[in-house]
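Explain this record to help learners:
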Amino acid sequence: MSDDQMRKEFEAFLKEEAPAIYDASNADARYIWTKAWQAALATQPQAPQEGLGGWIRWPGGECPIAKDVLTEVRLRGEGVSNEIRPAGQWFWNHDLGESDIVAYRTAPTETPEDQQ
């Protein structure tokens, strides 16, 4: 199941079972919703997925790797970022917005020039 499908199912569950938590207009409820979503995603595999080019799903939270490791990220609404940065320069927590990191992978350490 994709992250988007899982999020939709989780959202439908909260609307039905816990509407007060789902209420996006309430900042406290939004915080609880975000933490619950992160906990749900955390139960999913966090290793590179075969066939996904080394991408690792990210449910949000503290930076998962050493802060100096060059990292590529996939953002919820924007796809793969066109930047490669040290992991410590990305915002790893989720606010359920378009710029949340939903997957990451370490960047190659060699450039084509290095291989010649």
